[in-house]
Amino acid sequence: MAEQLNPDEKLQLITRNLQEVLGEEKLKQVLQERELKVYWGTATTGKPHVAYFVPMSKIADFLKAGCEVTILFADLHAFLDNMKAPWELLELRVQYYEQVIKAMLESIGVPLDKLKFVKGTDFQLSRQYTLDVYRLSSMVTEHDAKKAGAEVVKQVEHPLLSGLLYPGLQALDEEYLKVDAQFGGVDQRKIFTLAEKYLPSLGYAKRSHLMNPMVPGLTGTKMSSSEEDSKIDLLDKKEDVKKKLKKAFCEPGNIENNGLLSFVKHVLFPLHGEFSVKRDPKWGGDKVYTAFEDVEKDFAEELVHPGDLKASMEVALNKLLDPIRKKFETPELRKLANTAYPDPSKTKAAGKAAKPSAAGEEAELAPSRLDIRVGKVISVEKHPDADSLYLEKIDVGEAEPRTVVSGLVAFVSLEEMRDRSVLLLCNMKPQKMRGIESQAMVLCATIEGEPRRVEPLDPPEGSSPGDRVFVEGYETGKPDDKLNPKKKVWEKLQVDLKLSGECVAQWKDQQLMTKLGPVTCKTLKGANIS
Hints:
The chain is an alpha+beta fold. The protein is 35% helix and 20% strand.
């Protein structure tokens, strides 16, 4: 097909459904001379899920346009990003990613012989690459490195140096993979602009960048029995897919933040060119759409019912997932999935008789170890020895209020803080701040950048001081009496605390709750929690 396309047609295919392209003129120049070389990288951290079909469908577009495509399994990046993948599990997770990504590509008809698969540590540990890391680190400021990774690397109060290295390594990968363009989500835009700024300083060419939109997930802010239902795993059984789709956020006529419609637009139409909606004959019967805009229009006008959309999505999803499930029925791949992502409960039980490994320690980091409670601010006054700090007396249902020293008033007015309900981490080790002991920490949503944006989290309406906050699925665990700072329990758990696209507080995509409902934030979608 690519031989029959002219450069303009190839460009249209390469850029369709993208949110943004940086360096489009450079793409046009290359396409006039030869085929484009592009790479997509994925850090081998958590299990890939159905949202990965979005970049897979674009890879199919790239191949149809004649591109030379490289897929990078970024194992070193997975470790650098606040140790999302323990070193002991890196190789196993690379193997799992390779098998599952290849199965996804095969399920959508992408020929694997047209692709090049590369593991990050196969070239990122070489002498020349390491020297370039040092050269780059002598040019990039701490501010630029932190800003570049703000939407990709987990943001914590005391970031590890490894997270600051992450964006620079991703920039260098463009040179070492010898590509013309890098493809990724729009959340990586700041890393892409860092690459454009600094690679020429090393004597390397500036590359183009292709960015997918960040499509919403399958659930909204509605209550659910378990946050495990918020995403569909590639190996989920058909009955699990049905159950999760049934609970998916899909209001009649509402086309905003509709994950089902987004999947139809960014995966099904690019792959098949059509979408079939199954309907009862009394409502018009089945209808085949050949343009996404018509599906969206009919849904907005309530000519397509949410139930019909979900039923149709179920059929389409299972067609994509069936070949992947079949491939992973073999004993070898079942064993790989279980060892790359060990069951936390089994790992914990095995660790009782012996010193746990790094992977075992990761599994024991249950969020129930955090003593998080609802608190009510009683009073706020300036710190006597620090202009930027304030003393907050906060009622957490104990005999005496807790004293908290913070700089929150720089982001939230005194009037807003007084009598406000907040979330308090109560079992941290007390710390002296300018001579006054802070006995707890107010949990806030934070987005780094200029300006830095901070908002306290909001417990459900009607909450009382002392109400316990828990992560769904971890309701029965007992908090530590005091968190041991040397074990960095808070720091390791905190990297997975964030706000969803609907401003709901989550840990690893599972909601933070009280008995009255989910914890939320007013405006900072996707923010980290610290």
